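Following up on my earlier thread - several people asked me to post the actual chain instead of describing it. Fair enough. Here it is, all 492 residues.
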Amino acid sequence: MTNPVTLPDGTPVTARAGLASAVEVAAAVRSGSTSATELLEAHLARIEAADGALHAFNHVTTERARADAAAVDAAVAAGQDPGPLAGVTVALKDNLCTRGVPTTCSSRILEGWTPPYDATVVERLRAAGAVVVGKTNLDEFAMGSSTENSAFGPTRNPHDPARVPGGSSGGSAAAVAAGLTAVALGSDTGGSIRQPAALCGVVGVKPTYGLVSRYGLVAFASSLDQIGPFAPTVADAALVLETIAGHDRRDSTSIPQPAPALSAQLGDGVEGLRIGIVSELSGQGIEGFEPEVLARLHEAADALTAAGAKLDTVSVPSAVAGLSAYYMIAPAEASSNLARYDGVRYGLRREGPNTAAMMAASRTAGFGPEVKRRIMLGTYALSAGYADAFYGRAQRIRTLMISEFARVYESFDLLLCPTSPCVAFEFGAKADPLTMYLNDVCTIPSNLTGQPAISVPFGTDATGLPVGVQVMAPLLGEAAMFRAAAALEGSR
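Reply from S.P.:
Thanks for posting it. Predicted structure:
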């Protein structure tokens, strides 16, 4: 059985009794029935009590958060509306630029660096009345599936500190699961929001590529990265996504349309929706799926059928090749993006007898093993004589996947599969890189196609560890996706 982290009174941090949802918090603060300061202090006390065991945070912005909460309370007292997220505490993955606050990507090469500007999503959260409480731990430069690759030590799963929280956004997932913050933001390049959400038992969303601005997100793989929310409920995730989404002229890949209206449609149900269970992502053709994960998937399918949806199985053959394509494309883009960390412009610098030696020494000291592995893999995949055989072929597979998923969505409104083939595993259990990479087999297709997906907690295994079910949608299909997620949540 699990052995969750507990508070000083013995209460498991994963018990949500007494913890208000973000929707409830914002309504209470805006009405004046409670204060943002009071709510913040409760979360800061919880962080003080539990984060020593979890290490969800790299940096807690206590004084800035208190000032922001006081500003929200002052607005309410003056009869003003502070915004739809009034007083809601938010944690930010430590690869989102935050003005004057250390932003490290959990890497020694950026240790102590403070950006001179805020990411667009940070600006939008603060404009909506949210209170940022700190920066969360991650796999270095978002490269990993367990948050074991952080230069500052691992984050632990609140349900069992002997197990990983998933990754790369493990700190954000653990912070929400433990109630250290009401909601959090992460980034998702190959499943880095949805997989830790599943392993920690919270809701995690990867929006349509371009729906949320990437301005101020430290790049890993620019054609894949997307920012999204972690939340304890589907309604909370919808509220946050509505706040951070929408066009941003500072991001050339930003979709030129306003944020979607999601909250108002959550109760519309799934009557008549056509939902396909992807056979290749449900234990057929890919090994390693735990039986209890598949059992929860079939229970989720039954719940959607009972709610009026029409379920059937569907094949997407190219999904099997998604993992291989991703681990060519993402490292290639990382090799290009991380070339800027050279010891000259900002970040760590190690001296050398000449410029080349200085750069080599800085990168050797600053990057961890997994980052170095992916940079070397990506550089090789782009090298003369190999680019077409590796990177070019991976891009052709990506094009095939986009085509096949588009064809499937002509017959289905949504798709269903597990979020992760397994529940949270013990530290060190997947030290082999290939074994670790297989954790992303269900989540990678949505990144390669640019389509949205959401992970919803749906029961546990026999030991009490959470299982997540993934709902996938076509481009800009968030409204139907959230309706199905709400139906799954309501069926438990």
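The chain has 15 helices and eleven strands. That should answer part of your original question.
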